């Protein structure tokens, strides 16, 4: 026991008194202070206040221990399929019944405590929208783990035969459990449609009406997934597993939607597949003369012409082109290098980031091809994405290795600009002012790091442009990007 605590002081004084020794002046002073503190906190022994406190403490001490309640809840979970969830979560969280009380010794009516409830809630089987609303899906990465079930059901709709639908859905779910690999030279793993046994049944059990219903189901699932992912996590880059599911749904729906994955900087070979150029043209068509393209200095006409020339060059080829050299050069030039390839992962990262900027990393594709329109609206999404920027930039202060956090903040900022660009022009000025006020109200170190970012946004919103080095106003305004081959200015902006 801590001898300096109130209890320790009282015990020492009791020992001295029991031994018949007078209290030392220091111990007597400590005893008076301890008694005064105890009375002030709990009340005088025998008083109504003190009696109420002891009664409440006795009530709490008589409550069943959490581990005993957890054992009873575990008994409820045991009969369930351990590989699947359950839609009846309320029954699992109900108070202890009379029957359970007889078997466990717990008082009937014992309530499951909040901490145990949160654990049991993870077993809920419900639509993804409900899981997100309940806070059970904390990130886009977790959402991606749940999506194969939805996609499997949509994919199986192309079969009229019930047995084939069951087989197709089970095959898809099993296939998505395989290990994912990063491959070089634009190679990709086998797709589920390329499996021999899937190809063997592809033409069976379906007719024209079934095929049309299947396409409609896949398109609806894609729109639903896009609305959910973008609406729930507006400041997060869409993870590759989620992009793969969206791409599969787009193929099932016969949509020419060029979904692009996030490439790994350490194995990047300096070239992009043609779908990146197609996605960049989609973004250029959607965002022509927008705040987004002005901020990042994108020549939309040049991107469109590049895509047209590439498509013309491909006419007459027996095989489609595997690369888009013009797009590679454009990304390299925008990154400030002579080539799109560098032996440095950081150098590769700057090029990959330019590809993400030009394509909006699937946001424009979702809007144009899937027709997403999140319920919250673009204005709310812009504000929520900017809130994510503020949270991430706040973590930079005192961080020994802040570059990863800065990159995530730059991704969230890019999505903020995209959503902002889709807002009516009359609302954009008000949103910029609100963002500036929110940035100024952050902790001093966060506000200082965001000041050049907000200055750059205001500059572009008022019709200005950045210099060739991405700065303006003598360095007071900066274009915010995440990757750099040198020290990032945001990491050293505040000491």
Features:
495 residues, mainly alpha, two-stranded antiparallel ribbon, 23 helices, 2 strands
Task: Give a written overview of the molecule.
This protein has about 500 residues and is mainly α. It has helices at about 5-20, 25-40, 50-60, 65-75, 90, 100-105, 115-120, 130-135, 140-155, 160-175, 195-200, 210-230, 240-250, 275-285, 290-295, 300-315, 325-335, 345-360, 365-370, 380-395, 405-420, 425-440, 445-460, and strands at about 470, 475-480. A two-stranded antiparallel sheet has the order 1-2. Strand 1 (about 470) and strand 2 (about 475-480) form a beta hairpin. It is globular. The two termini are about 45 Å apart.
Radius of gyration: 31 Å
State the assembly state of the protein chains: single chain
Query: Roughly what percent helix?
Result: 55-70%
Number-wise, the strands total 2
Q: What order do the SSEs take from the amino end to the carboxyl end, as H and E?
A: HHHHHHHHHHHHHHHHHHHHHHHEE
Q: Unreliable runs, pLDDT <50, ≥5 residues?
A: none
So what's the overall shape? globular
Note the beta-strand portion: under 5%
**In terms of structural class, how would the helical and strand content be classed?**
mainly alpha
Average predicted local confidence, pLDDT: 86
Give the biggest beta sheet. Answer: 2 strands, antiparallel
Give the CA-CA distance, first to last residue: 43 Å
Give me the side-by-side strand order of the main sheet.
1-2
What is the count of DSSP helices, taking H or I runs of 4+ residues?
Answer: 23
């Amino acid at each position: 026991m801590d001898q300096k605590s109130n209890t320790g002081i009282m015990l020492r004084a009791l020992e001295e008194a029991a031994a018949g020794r007078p209290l030392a002046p220091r111990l007597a002073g400590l005893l008076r202070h301890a008694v005064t503190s105890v009375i002030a906190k709990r009340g005088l022994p025998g008083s109504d206040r003190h009696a109420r406190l002891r009664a409440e403490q006795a009530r709490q001490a008589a409550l069943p221990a959490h581990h005993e309640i957890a054992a009873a809840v575990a008994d409820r979970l045991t009969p369930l399929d351990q590989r699947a969830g359950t839609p009846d979560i309320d029954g699992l969280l109900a108070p202890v019944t009379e029957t359970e009380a007889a078997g466990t010794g717990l008082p009937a009516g014992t309530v499951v405590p909040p901490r145990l409830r949160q654990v049991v809630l993870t077993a809920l089987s419900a639509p993804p929208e409900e899981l997100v609303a309940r806070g059970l899906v904390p990130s886009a990465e977790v959402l991606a783990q749940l999506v194969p079930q939805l996609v499997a059901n949509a994919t199986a709709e192309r079969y009229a035969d019930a047995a084939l639908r069951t087989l197709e859905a089970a095959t898809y779910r099993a296939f998505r459990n395989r290990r994912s690999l990063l491959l070089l030279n634009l190679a990709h793993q086998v797709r589920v449609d390329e499996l021999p046994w899937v190809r063997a049944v592809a033409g069976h059990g379906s007719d024209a009406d079934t095929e049309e219903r299947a396409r409609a189901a896949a398109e609806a699932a894609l729109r639903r997934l896009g609305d959910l992912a973008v609406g729930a996590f507006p400041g997060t880059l869409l993870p590759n597993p989620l992009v793969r599911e969206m791409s599969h749904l787009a193929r099932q729906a016969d949509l020419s939607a060029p979904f692009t994955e996030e490439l790994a900087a350490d194995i990047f070979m300096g070239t992009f597949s043609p779908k990146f150029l197609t996605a960049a043209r989609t973004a250029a068509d959607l965002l022509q003369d927008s705040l987004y393209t002005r901020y990042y200095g994108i020549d939309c006409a040049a991107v469109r012409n590049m895509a047209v020339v590439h498509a013309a060059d491909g006419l007459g080829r027996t095989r489609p082109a595997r690369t888009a050299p013009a797009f590679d050069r454009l990304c390299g030039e925008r990154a400030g290098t002579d080539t799109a390839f560098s032996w440095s992962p950081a150098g590769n990262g700057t090029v990959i980031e330019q590809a993400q900027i030009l394509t909006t990393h699937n946001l424009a594709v979702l809007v144009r091809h899937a027709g997403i329109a999140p319920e919250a609206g673009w204005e709310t999404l812009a504000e929520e994405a900017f809130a994510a920027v503020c949270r991430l930039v706040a973590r930079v202060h005192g961080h020994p290795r802040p570059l990863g956090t800065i990159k995530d903040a730059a991704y969230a900022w890019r999505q903020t600009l995209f959503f902002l660009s889709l807002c009516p022009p009359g609302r954009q000025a008000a949103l910029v002012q609100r963002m500036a006020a929110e940035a100024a109200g952050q902790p001093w170190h966060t506000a200082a790091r965001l000041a050049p970012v907000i200055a750059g946004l205001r500059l572009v919103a008022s019709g200005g442009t950045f210099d060739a080095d991405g700065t303006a106003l003598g360095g007071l305004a900066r274009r915010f990007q995440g990757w750099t081959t040198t020290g990032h200015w945001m990491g050293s902006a505040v000491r």
